[in-house]
Every structure is written in structure tokens, then in C-alpha cells.
Amino acid sequence: MKDTVRYGLPPAIVFGVGMGVTGYTGIWWAMLFSAVLGGVIFYVLYSMLDRNPAAEESGDVDHAA
User: Fold this and answer.
1) pLDDT (tens digit, 9 = 90+) per residue, 27-61?
2) Is 17 exposed, middle or buried (0-12, 13-18, 19+ CB in 10 A)?
3) What distance in Å separates the CA atoms of residue 28 and residue 2, rounded to the nearest whole number?
């Protein structure tokens, strides 16, 4: 659950900011850009997590310190 929050939050923030900009300016490509960027960030983080679970655990120690 903690990993879901950690890896899901950055794309959600990017998407939320993009949606806010879209609503404020009415620019459709801002929404598209934020959705694509959020997806890319999520994919990169998820693939990193998938490849090396041991590094993710040591990362938890680094974040706590």
C-alpha cells in the first residue's frame, strides 16, 4: 500500500496540475500533455520498482534517515 502511494502520487500530482491548468485556460493540449506525462512518470517508476525490489527496500531506509 505504501508503495502504491509513493509511486502513484507523482503522476497524480502532475495530472491534477495539468487538469487545473486546463480548466483555467481551456487549453485541451494541456490536459493531454499532463495525462501523457503522468503516464510516463508512472511507467518509469513502476518499471524501476519491478526490476529491483531490493533497491526499493534500501531506498526506504534512505528516506527514513
Assistant:
1) 777 778 878 888 888 888 777 776 655 555 555 54
2) middle
3) 33
Kindly give, in sequence order, each residue whose CB lies less than 8 Å from that of residue 30, ignoring residues fewer than 6 positions away.
Answer: 18, 21, 22
Nearest partner of 37 among 14, 17, 5, 19, judged by Cα: 14
- Is the pTM for the entire model greater than 0.85? no
Helices 28-51 and 53-64 meet at what angle, rounded to 10? 100
57, HSE (Cβ side, Cα atoms, 13 Å): 3
The C-alpha cell that represents 53 in the structure block = 525490489
For 46, left (φ over 0), alpha (ψ -120 to 50), or beta?
Answer: alpha
* Residue ranges with strand state E in 1-65: none
